[in-house]
């Protein structure tokens, strides 16, 4: 038995086909014990730590963090007897440390659809799913290698008859490309009627969408829930956010790129669709002169005890929201079907753009924090999010959210409520603008607030009062503090 | 970025509200060993029954050994799944006391009906822990002779085994094996989620009206996969028994002594012919529902931490130390035994042979069938037509 053992990514949960390497917990050269956690892998079902299958020394790590790896692919090589001296010959699987091979496009795309049974309809179990994955319900995912059927006794190889080239090397196994683009789109019209599942038809009926006018993006050109929702909302509600914004799109021959929907993107999409189509949203805007507040921030920064604290306009907005919630507690509530749950605690969510996509961690019980504690909590939350270490616990239980769109240089937006929350405030860019101040047009620092709220719970009057209070605080924080607290 | 949050807000709110209603201070909870390792002499159940245990030092040490071994073997199986050697594993982490306490209360003649998580009860029945792993490795169908081990096959269908147990227990009565101190009894294991199943409620009805010698042992681990307890019931589960006409008791499921005492009493009542009872072992699943699940998506970390403080093993260790029943050498020896047995288990799992394809015909009918024999022969000839065939 070989000293070097290669560990292939297993199916971590009943029929998964791939996993993303989140973090390596060991590095090349490390001595590891049996069952020592070596890598964190995130699948469609869970993020889990994989324990080492063998004790020994890490010989090679085959995929860097952030790579999505097919089940069955080697991810790490372990020397199970490092004390036995140097290796005689370099292992074929080992790669020099620090020189991680990029998985070739072919190795990622080459998921074989069982050739003889290749007529399975895409999207069905065993067939190709949208995004080039092979759909499986249970088991160990699709085969990633060519079928190795043992030859029949005394049988003449079929290939020898068809192509008599006895001296030629064995041809490589045929790899059938999955989800040929031609299979999508047109098939619907070719067969006559429109392909859509009953719940999708119901949704289209409810939303007043004519299925005949749509081009399906599902298997065999069938119309999906997303197609209907997109048509209903006037094409592009969701601003396209490439998964990895830094990598240029790689277009195929059809000049289209297909990005698999998964991970944070998938979750965001589900949450946004769910929220947008269950909670009736109302958005109101308020433009306020925040010159005094900006000056107050400067004075705060100048104080000795605040010297090392990161003080941003977001801090004042957060404070304004927390104070306004005290005056209007109904804003901090959840629609729970037959009851409205009003919360005394405010878990203040802050929408953060990260490399993995949009996440909304929250500051727990933010209403109880002093301004200084709030500042520290916000700084910590943002830094944790940027470094990708935000825990699921930090992202759950939010009660009210601020989305700071101003950092992208825009004035405002109509934010969509995180599921379970009743209000979300968009904080726009602070700009110098001509503004009527004490009867004269002056250059003042002005921003626009956008508040979306769930109209099942919050009426226009309450929403307006809340937004007004947030604006009042930002217009004159000192006076608001004196008047309210 | 005019968008909001992923992350199940409503679910977390529910989880938080449930943990506030938790077990602390519940007068109905039978407890004989506190989370701090303090012994309580006796505890009274809701119907006035007195529960107490009187173990020798050796027996106390034995229970500790059981708990540690069961946890270690379970952890090994979880690791094997992560390494691709098992297709799935349902971990019992956190529920060791409920399983060891009830498992050790069983007598040789008693019959147990497990779910797919009763690895601890299986261990206490003296069964080799390798036995169920073939099922999770996918090399057999999880079949064994229930009568040989007095331990039914793992039942994946939620709650189905409560009906099997009820029928079995009714059979005990018909055989005339109840009514004495050494009579027979059966125990049916299930979880809080199963109480919402029709099967379990039917089993309650039948066991009650036929006075079956059966103990319904519910490990309330607070979650039916991702659904919290308040989605199963508006009353404490043990109180359901009253509506069916038999006694119910809630025991601290993380207290191996109380679980033992309550189960032994319920089994003795059953074997004496006094009918069924329901035990709700109030506990917590520290891990995932199975290895395919991610509990961080539906429950909050603070809840898990709160239960961590009620760990079933830590309290026994604290008790043994305080009472000077065991010393450091003993704990080290138990850890070493656990390590040895888990390595042994791992080695044997890796060596489990893949089944021969033809064995799929083996257990269809107890006495075979001509049609099946013909199919088997045909299939064998087909397999033999390949080169390098082992047939």
TrEMBL record, chain A:
Residues covered by the Peripheral subunit-binding (PSBD) domain: 195-232
E.C. number: 2.3.1.-
Source domain of life: Bacteria
GO cellular component: cytoplasm
Region (Disordered): 80-103, 145-173
Keywords per UniProt: Acyltransferase, Lipoyl, Transferase
CDD domains the record matches: lipoyl_domain (cd06849)
Molecular-function annotations in GO: acetyltransferase activity; lipoic acid binding
Annotated Low complexity bias: 155-165
InterPro entries documented for this protein: 2-oxoA_DH_lipoyl-BS (IPR003016), 2-oxoacid_DH_actylTfrase (IPR001078), 2-oxoacid_DH_E2_comp (IPR050743), Biotin_lipoyl (IPR000089), CAT-like_dom_sf (IPR023213), E3-bd_dom_sf (IPR036625), PSBD (IPR004167), Single_hybrid_motif (IPR011053)
PROSITE patterns given in the database record: BIOTINYL_LIPOYL, LIPOYL, PSBD
Xref: Pfam families: 2-oxoacid_dh, Biotin_lipoyl, E3_binding
Cofactor: (R)-lipoate
Family stated for the protein in its record: Belongs to the 2-oxoacid dehydrogenase family.
Organism: Micromonospora noduli
All residue ranges annotated as the Lipoyl-binding domain in the record: 4-79
Listed name of the protein: Dihydrolipoamide acetyltransferase component of pyruvate dehydrogenase complex
Automatic annotation (TrEMBL), chain B:
Chain ranges of the Dehydrogenase E1 component domain: 67-353
Cited InterPro entries: Alpha-ketoacid_DH_E1_comp, DH_E1, PdhA/BkdA, THDP-binding
Cofactors demanded by this protein: thiamine diphosphate
Segments of this protein annotated with the region Disordered: 1-29
One of the GO BP terms on file: branched-chain amino acid catabolic process
Stored CDD domains: TPP_E1_PDC_ADC_BCADC
Biased composition (Basic residues): 11-21
Keyword terms of this UniProt record: Oxidoreductase, Pyruvate, Thiamine pyrophosphate
Top-level taxon of the source organism: Bacteria
NCBIfam families per UniProt: PDH_E1_alph_x
Protein name, per record: Pyruvate dehydrogenase (Acetyl-transferring)
């Amino acid at each position: 038995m070989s000293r070097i053992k290669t560990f292939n990514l297993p199916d971590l949960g009943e029929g998964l086909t791939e996993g993303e390497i989140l973090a390596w917990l060991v590095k090349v050269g490390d001595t590891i014990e049996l069952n020592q956690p070596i890598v964190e892998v995130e699948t469609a079902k869970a993020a889990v730590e994989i324990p080492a299958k063998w004790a020994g020394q890490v010989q090679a790590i085959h995929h860097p963090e952030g790579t999505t790896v097919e089940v069955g692919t080697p991810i790490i090589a372990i020397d199970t007897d490092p004390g036995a001296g140097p290796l005689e010959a370099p292992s074929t699987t080992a790669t020099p440390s620090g020189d991680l091979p990029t998985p070739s496009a072919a190795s990622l795309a080459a998921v074989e659809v069982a050739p003889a049974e290749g007529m399975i309809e895409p999207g069905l179990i065993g067939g190709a799913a949208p995004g080039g994955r092979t759909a499986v319900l249970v088991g160990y995912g699709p085969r990633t290698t060519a079928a190795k059927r043992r030859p029949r006794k005394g049988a003449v190889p079929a290939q020898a008859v068809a192509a008599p080239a006895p001296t030629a090397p064995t041809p490589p196994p045929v790899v059938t490309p999955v989800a040929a683009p031609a299979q999508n789109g047109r098939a619907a019209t070719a067969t006559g009627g429109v392909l859509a599942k009953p719940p999708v038809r119901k949704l289209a009926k409810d939303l007043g969408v004519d299925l005949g006018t749509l081009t399906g993006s599902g298997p065999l050109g069938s119309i999906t829930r997303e197609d209907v929702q997109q048509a209903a909302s006037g094409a592009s509600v969701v601003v396209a956010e490439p998964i990895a914004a830094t990598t240029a799109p790689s277009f195929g021959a059809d000049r289209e790129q297909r990005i698999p929907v998964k991970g944070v993107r998938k979750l965001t999409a589900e949450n946004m669709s769910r929220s947008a189509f269950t909670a009736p949203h109302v958005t109101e805007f308020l433009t306020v002169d925040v010159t005094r507040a900006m000056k107050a921030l400067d004075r705060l920064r100048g104080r000795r005890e605040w010297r090392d604290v990161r003080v941003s306009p977001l801090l004042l907005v957060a404070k304004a929201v927390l104070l306004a919630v005290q005056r209007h507690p109904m804003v901090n509530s959840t629609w729970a079907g037959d009851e409205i749950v009003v919360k005394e605690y405010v878990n203040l969510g802050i929408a953060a753009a990260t490399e993995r996509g949009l996440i909304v961690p929250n500051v727990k019980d933010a209403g109880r924090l002093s301004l200084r504690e709030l500042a520290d909590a916000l700084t910590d939350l943002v830094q944790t999010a940027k470094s990708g270490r935000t825990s699921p616990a930090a992202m759950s239980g939010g009660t009210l959210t601020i989305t700071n769109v101003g950092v992208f240089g825009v004035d405002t937006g109509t934010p969509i409520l995180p599921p379970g929350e009743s209000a979300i405030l968009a904080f726009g860019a602070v700009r110098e603008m001509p503004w009527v101040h004490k009867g004269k047009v002056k250059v003042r620092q002005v921003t626009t607030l956008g508040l979306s709220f769930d109209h099942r719970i919050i009426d226009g009057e309450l929403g307006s009062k809340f937004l007004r209070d947030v604006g009042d605080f930002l217009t004159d924080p000192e006076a608001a503090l004196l008047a309210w607290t | 970025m005019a968008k909001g949050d992923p992350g199940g807000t409503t679910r977390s709110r529910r989880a938080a509200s449930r943990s506030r209603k938790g077990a602390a201070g519940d007068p109905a909870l039978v407890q004989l060993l506190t989370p701090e390792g303090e012994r309580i002499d006796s505890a009274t159940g809701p119907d006035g029954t007195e529960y107490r245990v009187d173990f020798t030092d050796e027996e106390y040490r034995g229970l500790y050994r059981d708990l540690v071994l069961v946890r270690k073997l379970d952890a090994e199986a979880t690791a094997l799944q992560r390494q691709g050697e098992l297709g799935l594993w349902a971990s019992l982490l956190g529920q060791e006391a409920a399983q060891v306490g009830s498992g050790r209360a069983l007598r040789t003649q008693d019959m147990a009906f497990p779910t797919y998580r009763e690895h601890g009860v299986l261990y206490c029945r003296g069964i080799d822990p390798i036995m169920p792993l073939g099922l999770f490795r996918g090399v057999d169908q999880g079949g064994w002779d229930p009568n040989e081990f007095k331990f039914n096959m793992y039942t994946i269908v939620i709650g189905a085994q409560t009906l099997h147990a009820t029928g079995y227990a009714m059979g005990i009565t018909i055989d005339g094996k109840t009514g004495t101190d050494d009579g027979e009894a059966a125990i049916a294991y299930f979880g809080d989620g199963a109480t919402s199943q029709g099967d379990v409620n039917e089993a309650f009805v039948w066991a009650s009206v036929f006075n079956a010698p059966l103990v319904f042992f519910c490990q309330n681990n607070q979650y039916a996969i991702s659904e919290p307890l308040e989605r199963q019931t508006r009353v404490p589960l043990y109180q359901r028994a009253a509506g069916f006409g038999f006694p119910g008791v809630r025991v601290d499921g993380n207290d191996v002594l109380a679980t033992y005492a309550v189960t032994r009493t319920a089994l003795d009542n059953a074997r004496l012919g006094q009918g069924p009872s329901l035990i709700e072992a109030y506990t917590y699943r520290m891990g995932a529902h199975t290895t395919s699940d991610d509990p961080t998506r539906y429950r909050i970390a603070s809840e898990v931490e709160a239960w961590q403080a009620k760990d079933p093993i830590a309290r026994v260790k604290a008790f043994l130390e305080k009472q000077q029943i065991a010393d450091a050498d003993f704990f080290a020896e138990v850890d070493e035994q656990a390590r040895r047995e888990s390595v042994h288990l791992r080695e044997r799992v890796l060596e489990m042979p893949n089944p021969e394809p033809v064995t799929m015909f083996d257990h269809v009918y107890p006495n075979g069938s001509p049609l099946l024999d013909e199919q088997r022969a045909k299939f064998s000839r087909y397999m033999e037509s390949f080169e390098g065939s082992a047939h």
